[in-house]
Structures are given as structure tokens and as C-alpha cells.
């Protein structure tokens, strides 16, 4: 996971595009290959992750919020399977939710995921859209919008079944 977190800081734009082209622009495959090719030790990876604070997030066309979203989403990926709660400030969570629902980011979401639903973060007051209400913590909404089914059981409201069916097919 740490190697994956480092990818947007360490791959040049050209290198990223070449790796993507090699796998027909299947990001998950490119990211998996990147992470599996990592040769540094765990302490070296952690040190490199700490150094990202002063490095450029090098994803072509990524908005300013992308590094925050990248870290928050993947922190959820780490903490949820361990049964731990990931504490992120309401301001940060709302920024990530705004980015995930922005016009630019929505094309990366599950197609139709946001159609006809109103999302409400029960712990931060953030909201988006109109339609059948889907409520949950900001953490649960972030996880779900990122396409992970791990938090679907935490969503409530008349639109929660719609979101669940759209994510799980």
C-alpha cells in the first residue's frame, strides 16, 4: 500500500503514461505492477512517504485536493479491514467529498452512482445532490464513493439500496 501511495509522487508524467499505455490504460493493473516492483525496505518506504509533504503530486490533470483524497481514501482501505476507525477532520472529509463529487472526478465514479440520490454526511453536515436520501458518516460516504463496498452497510436512507446495488452490481 505504501508503494502505491508513493506512485503519484515518484513517477514522472511520461513514466506514468508509458506504464498506463503498456496495460491499455487499466489503472489498477498499472498501480499493482508499480507496487509489486518496489525494492525498498519497509523503513525506506515509510521514510519516502514522510517526504511526500514537500513533493509534487504528479498526476496529469489532478486537482489541488487530489493528494488529500488519495491519502484519505487509502487510509480507509487500511483501517477498515483492521476494524479501526480512521479519524479525519470534518474539514478534510468535506474537501474529499467535494472532490469525489466534482464534475471532474465523477467520470471516475461507478457510472450512474450519484443519479437520483442525495448524499448526507451525518457527522460533518456535508451534502450533495437531490433525490432519495443516503446518509452515513463522511468516512462511509468517502469509502463508498471511492467504489469500495466495505462501508455500504453503514449507509442508511431510502437511497442506500440504490447505491448498494450500483456498487455491487
Provide an overview of this structure.
This protein is mostly helical and 169 residues long. It folds into two domains: 1-58, no CATH class; 61-169, 2-Layer Sandwich (Nonspecific Lipid-transfer Protein, Chain A). The protein is built from nine helices and three strands; from the N terminus they run αααααααβββαα. A three-stranded mixed β-sheet has the order 2-1-3. β1 (117-121) and β2 (127-129) form a beta hairpin. The radius of gyration is 17 Å and the shape is globular. The chain starts with a helix and ends with a helix.
Which class best fits the helix and strand makeup? mainly alpha
For the largest beta-sheet, the strand count, sense and barrel status come to: 3 strands, mixed
| CATH-derived topology of the largest domain | Nonspecific Lipid-transfer Protein, Chain A
The shape is: globular
Radius of gyration: 17 Å
User: Within the largest sheet, what's the order of strands?
Assistant: 2-1-3
Report the CATH C-level class of the largest domain: Alpha Beta
Mean pLDDT: 92
Low-confidence stretches: none
Counting DSSP E segments of at least 2 residues, the number of strands comes to 3
Describe, in short, the structure shown.
The protein is mostly helical and 169 residues long.
Structural descriptors:
169 residues, 2 domains, three-stranded mixed β-sheet, 3 strands
Layout of secondary structure:
Blueprint: H1 2-10, H2 13-22, H3 27-36, H4 42-50, H5 66-79, H6 90-100, H7 103-106, E1 117-121, E2 127-129, E3 132-136, H8 138-145, H9 160-168
Parallel strand pairs: 1-3
Antiparallel strand pairs: 1-2
Helix pairs in contact: 1-3, 1-4, 5-6, 6-8
Amino acid at each position: 500500500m505504501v508503494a502505491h501511495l508513493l506512485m503519484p509522487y515518484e513517477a514522472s508524467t511520461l513514466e506514468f503514461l508509458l506504464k498506463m499505455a503498456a496495460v491499455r490504460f487499466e489503472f489498477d493493473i498499472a498501480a499493482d505492477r508499480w507496487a509489486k516492483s518496489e525494492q525498498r525496505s519497509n523503513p525506506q518506504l515509510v521514510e519516502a512517504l514522510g517526504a511526500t509533504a514537500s513533493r509534487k503530486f504528479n498526476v496529469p490533470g489532478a486537482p489541488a485536493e487530489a493528494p488529500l483524497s488519495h491519502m484519505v481514501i487509502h487510509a480507509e482501505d487500511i483501517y477498515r479491514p483492521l476494524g479501526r476507525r480512521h479519524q479525519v477532520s470534518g474539514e478534510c472529509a468535506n474537501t474529499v467529498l467535494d472532490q469525489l463529487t466534482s464534475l471532474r472526478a465523477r467520470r471516475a465514479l461507478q457510472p450512474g452512482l450519484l443519479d437520483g440520490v442525495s448524499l448526507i454526511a451525518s457527522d460533518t453536515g456535508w451534502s450533495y445532490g437531490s433525490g432519495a436520501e443516503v446518509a452515513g458518516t463522511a468516512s462511509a460516504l468517502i469509502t463508498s464513493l471511492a467504489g469500495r463496498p466495505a462501508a455500504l452497510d453503514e449507509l442508511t436512507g431510502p437511497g442506500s439500496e440504490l447505491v448498494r446495488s450500483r456498487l455491487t452490481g
